[in-house]
Design a protein that fits this description.
Chain A: The chain crosses the membrane at residues 6-25, 46-71, 77-95, 116-133, 153-170, 182-200, 247-269, 281-302, 406-434, 454-472, 478-498, 510-527, 547-572. The complex is a heterodimer. By secondary structure, chain A is mostly helical. Chain A is built from 26 helices and 2 strands.
């Protein structure tokens, strides 16, 4: 059976499963559509949250980000998991007790202000739309690579699928498809990792393999990896190279950004009790950790495999003990077919610059490395592996390790599951904000339950259409998900929710001023270095560490924005009148778990 | 990070004893949160980043303890923290009679 047929079968089967679930889990009321009738068990919700949270970026890109940077990019691992501690301790249980359907609804009620609610909706829309475009592009790329259709056809197929289960089932349909998608994506991620860990270190668990012994040489795997990457003139894998301050702020921005993402928060509205919300955050992190503790192993091992492919001597001895891989092998050898496959996508490229019939991969910008000495001795003309995209580290992994064809098909289905599950969660957050906060909350408060359900479905359908069109023509800001979505969630949504719960003194004026200040400063900082609305060339300062304020990168600035939000809200609140008694009562009531059951009947 | 509750003695419809009990519950909750957040910050920002040079003499599989915390240890600690918090809060809810 050809690889194409295999891919088609596995992806088709996974899609049939999602559609089956969608038909089984149709939503009949707004409570089902927005919050799955608050009947999801904490473990199930944990699994759905994990799929909701782990996007195409986590599945496809993260291991590559770690592979080519090493220790410094541990920020992603800690940042994207540590946020769940904040969610479990500071937000999820209280917002579940509040017992409504959307994040802006809490902001509006707690700060007794429709204006605050609208600002919440605006933040939510910017964050979620930025995020969803990335997922849709991911769907298109995966389809075109594995099913030999064009990018846009792939996107429309993905959109039609999301339409089926999101519009029909709302939160209920999305929850149960996400559970299925989690199982697909974690299987797809883990199987190649286990094989590769066994091949390189003899450890069944990649988590142990990363810190285990490299079988062929008998030294620690990470010691061996450090050795070969520094031989080639790259930075030592396990060492700390970048600014400590920026690393701390970036990790914190990712953590509070994660805790402030509306599509993650609303998942905790689906469990029956407050205590379930706390427990569910723990389960979510368990399921996320299954991928996040494998990712650094995948990254390090893929880096090793790639390097040892280019320098076969590194496999079992010194890096330069054998000549580099020959051009002939790359062009004909069956075990290097993956290089040819990925060359056609443009994500991998090579060029025999010195015409010696071999492809030498090394860092030609480092004049002091062993590779530089070898370059002089063997008359090299610079690095000849000219393009290695981060993303192929996960996608090409099964091919690099020579795994059977069905593993490759499962990885393709896993990548699609990761992108589709996150897209569906985001679309639900978007349509909820439109139908519940804008239409029901502001424009037409008297709309009937049936009318609101219809409005929710229509806004979902429109959101899918808009996301697909934006996915076809991604605007400049789509590539800036980390800076823009996490920066905004960190600087506007997280602080306002936390203050709403932990302070009774923060007033309407304080919250609005805080949100606007945090958001404005963060956006301005990002635009200063990334260009106005991300239009290339309109940046006022170069996007380099020397030009950044105190060396703080635009992506880390969400942390500073959050501090500004807290400070402004505190000062303005002190200068304005205390919140009214009913709001103080509301805060009292969300702080105690008893009575959350009543909210189910809401 | 948490702003201390500022208005413990505000006027409200609830009777004193009820409010004192709910204040005591909230204070106990805050104490548990502070402990958890201290550990959360120590393993990630501490051991994995800022304090890494101080614990670099402890070897872990070809590298040092700080690297292990950065790529694996802190995530495991986060999981334990959340479940510990959830269990501790269930006990606290029962003690103060505010459980569901």
């Amino acid at each position: 059976m050809s690889q194409f047929t295999l891919n088609l079968l596995v992806i088709g089967a996974s899609f049939a499963l999602y559609i089956g679930i969608a038909i089984w889990a149709r939503a009949g009321s707004t409570a089902e559509f927005y919050a799955a009738n608050r009947g999801v068990s904490p473990v199930m919700n944990g699994m759905a949250t994990a799929a909701d949270w782990m996007s195409a970026a986590s599945f496809i890109s993260m291991a590559g980000l770690i592979a080519f940077t090493g220790y410094d990019n541990s920020t992603y691992l800690m940042g994207w998991t540590g946020g769940y501690v904040l969610l479990a301790l500071l937000l999820a249980p209280y917002l579940r007790k509040f017992g409504k359907f959307t994040v802006p609804e809490f902001i509006g009620d707690r700060f007794y202000s429709p204006t605050a609610r609208i600002i919440g909706v605006i933040c939510l829309l910017i964050v979620s739309i930025t995020y969803v475009i990335g997922q849709m592009t991911g769907v298109g790329v995966t389809f075109s690579r594995y099913l030999e259709v064009s990018n846009s056809t792939g996107l429309w197929i993905g959109a039609a699928l999301v339409f089926c289960y999101a519009v029909l089932g709302g939160m209920k349909g999305i929850t149960y498809t996400q559970v299925a998608q989690y199982i697909v994506l974690i299987t797809a991620y883990t199987i190649p990792a286990i094989f590769i860990s066994l091949q390189l270190t003899g450890n069944f668990l990649p988590q142990l393999g990363l810190f285990g012994t490299h079988d062929a040489t008998g030294v620690s795997f990470l010691t061996k990896l450090n050795q070969i990457v520094t031989d080639l003139g790259f930075r030592e894998y396990t060492a700390h190279h970048n600014s400590t301050l920026d690393m701390v702020l970036f990790t914190l921005a990712l953590m509070i950004g994660t805790a402030g993402l509306p599509h993650v928060i609303i998942r905790f509205f689906t469990v029956p009790k407050v205590s379930d919300a706390r427990k569910s955050a723990g389960w979510a992190l368990v399921f996320i950790a299954l991928l996040y503790t494998v990712a650094p192993a995948v990254g390090a091992m893929a880096r090793f495999n790639l390097t040892a492919t280019m320098w076969p001597g590194a496999q079992a001895g010194d890096t330069f003990s054998e000549p580099a891989v020959s051009l002939e092998a790359i062009e004909t050898a069956p075990e290097l077919a993956w290089m040819r496959n990925w060359q056609t996508t443009g994500l991998l490229a090579w060029e025999d610059k010195n015409g010696d019939g071999r492809i030498q991969y090394y860092n030609d910008a480092n004049p002091d490395s062993p590779a530089a000495a070898v370059a002089v001795e063997r008359e090299l003309a610079g690095n000849e592996l000219t393009t290695v995209n981060n993303d192929i580290m996960v996608l090409a992994n099964p091919e690099i390790a020579n795994l059977p064809g069905w593993v490759i098909a499962v990885v393709a289905a896993g990548g699609l599951a990761a992108a589709l599950s996150t897209a569906a969660g985001l679309l639900l957050a978007i349509s909820g904000a439109v139908s519940h906060d804008l239409i029901k909350g502001t424009l037409r408060p008297n709309i009937s339950e049936k009318g609101e359900l219809m409005a929710a479905r229509v806004s979902m359908a429109i959101s899918i259409l808009v996301a697909t069109i934006l996915g076809l023509n991604p605007p400049g800001f789509a590539a800036q998900t980390v800076a823009l979505a996490f920066g905004l969630a960190a600087s506007s949504i997280f602080p306002v929710l936390m203050m709403g719960i932990f302070s009774k003194r923060v007033t309407r004026e304080g919250a609005i001023a805080g949100m606007v200040a945090g958001m404005a400063v963060t956006i301005l900082y990002i635009f200063t270095y990334k260009g106005w609305f991300f239009v290339a060339g309109t940046n006022m300062l170069p996007d380099t560490a020397d030009a950044w304020l105190f060396g703080i990168s635009p992506a880390s600035f969400g942390t500073v924005g959050a501090l500004i939000n807290f400070a402004v809200a505190y000062v303005v609140s002190q200068a304005t009148q205390r919140p009214p008694a009913h709001v103080q009562e509301l805060v009292e009531s969300i702080r105690v778990p008893r009575g959350a059951g009543d909210a189910v009947a809401h | 990070m948490a702003e201390p509750p500022t208005c413990l003695n505000r006027e409200g419809p609830k009777d004193m004893s009820d409010r004192q009990s709910s204040n005591a519950y909230w204070q106990a909750n805050l104490r548990i949160i502070y402990i958890c957040l201290a550990i959360w910050a120590l393993v990630s920002y501490g051991f994995a980043i800022i304090l890494r040079p101080l614990i670099s003499m402890i070897p872990v599989g070809g590298t040092d303890l700080g690297f292990w915390f950065a790529q694996q240890g802190s995530i495991l600690v986060f999981i334990v923290l959340i479940f510990w918090y959830a269990a501790r809060m269930n006990k606290l809810d029962a003690e103060y009679g505010v459980d569901e």
